[in-house]
Amino acid sequence: MEPILQVQNLHKKIGKKAIIRDASFAVMPGEIMGFLGPNGAGKTTTIKMILGLLKVDSGSIQIGPYDGVKDPERARSLVGGIIENPEMYGHLTGRQNLQVYANMCQGVSRERIDEVVRQVKLENRIGDKVRRYSLGMRQRLGVAQAILHRPKLLILDEPTNGLDPVGIKELRDTLRQLADEEEVGVLISSHQLAEMELMCDRVCIVDAGQIVAVRDLRAERASAGQSDQSVPTLWEVSDPQRAAELLAALFPQGEITPAAGGVQLSCSRKQRAAAVRQLCESGVEVYSVIPHRTSLEELFLETTTGSKGQIQ
Ligand SMILES: Nc1ncnc2c1ncn2[C@@H]1O[C@H](COP(=O)(O)OP(=O)(O)OP(=O)(O)O)[C@@H](O)[C@H]1O
């Protein structure tokens, strides 16, 4: 399968400052890709170049079969985007807003408007004036507007800003459905790491204008529980000292450290099963066994410096 977006060796200077340095990443059809980074890392600048709102200094942006730099119009016909809060007319209804936008696109029928309204689950409120909408409803109307022309790539810059948990979940469901059912590739920037961990198939972390990590969360989720890799594991037990002795006897190579309510020891799935048996047979009660996987927040903090404008 070919990527719907392929960014390669992208560079951008503003004034004398290098804002983006040699950035390369791809988004596949049907994939939700998180675009993460500290304030000032260069996310919006990259997104603006992909959307054709900012000139590229060097490097390439391929959108489907089209060259985004040399053939911007055709390339952008495949893209829908929202940068921060979508602009809407508050005195018009949701449907009228979509109609205004549809009039600027070619071939958007009334049926298509009905279809996107259903997709973003605004059927019950589409006849209300937009000034009465919650932020979450405005965001979903923004998504409806962005997908009216059936883009293959949807780009959202910080769409979860200011949304409450219900609004975030609704947006997540809408994007998941677009990715799964219509094979739309989604590039979404956000600072909400826990939310991105739930929403994204992969994440790309940018720091000081460079891509510093790409992580395949979907593959990690699929392999979780199946892989027999050794991972740091927290053992919450009735008698931590006795547990430490028993675990040390069972795994002489292992490093056992005290932890809240128990001990910590790295072990594989099979080793965990053997250890639980041993502890229980020896009269130590096991309350929980928690394998620890690196969270997105930990990866983010490890790979980013905070983009304090150190590049020139
Ligand atoms: N028009 C401009 N003139 C000068 N510097 C700019 C301009 N636009 C962006 N920058 C600088 O480029 C860097 C990257 O900004 P950008 O908005 O792309 O970051 P971001 O990752 O989207 O940050 P945030 O998470 O805060 O939105 C910042 O240092 C910013 O100050």
Describe it.
- Residues 5-233 form the ABC transporter domain.
- GO terms for molecular function: ATP binding; ATP hydrolysis activity.
- InterPro entries: AAA+_ATPase, ABC_transporter-like_ATP-bd, ABC_transporter-like_CS, P-loop_NTPase.
- With 312 residues, the chain is of the alpha/beta class.
- It contains eleven helices and 14 strands.
- It has helices spanning 43-50, 72-76, 94-104, 110-119, 135-147, 165-182, 193-199, 217-223, 240-250, 269-281, 296-303, and strands at residues 5-14, 17-27, 32-36, 58-63, 66-67, 79-83, 153-157, 185-189, 202-207, 210-216, 231-237, 257-259, 262-267, 286-291.
- The chain has a six-stranded mixed sheet, with helices on both faces. Strands 2-1-4-5 form a four-stranded antiparallel sheet.
- A hairpin with a 2-residue loop joins strand 4 (58-63) and strand 5 (66-67).
- Helix 4 (110-119) crosses helix 5 and helix 5 (135-147) runs parallel beside helix 6.
- The longest helix has 18 residues, at 165-182.
- The model is unreliable at 307-312 (pLDDT under 50).
- The site of adenosine-5'-triphosphate has 11 residues, from helix 1.
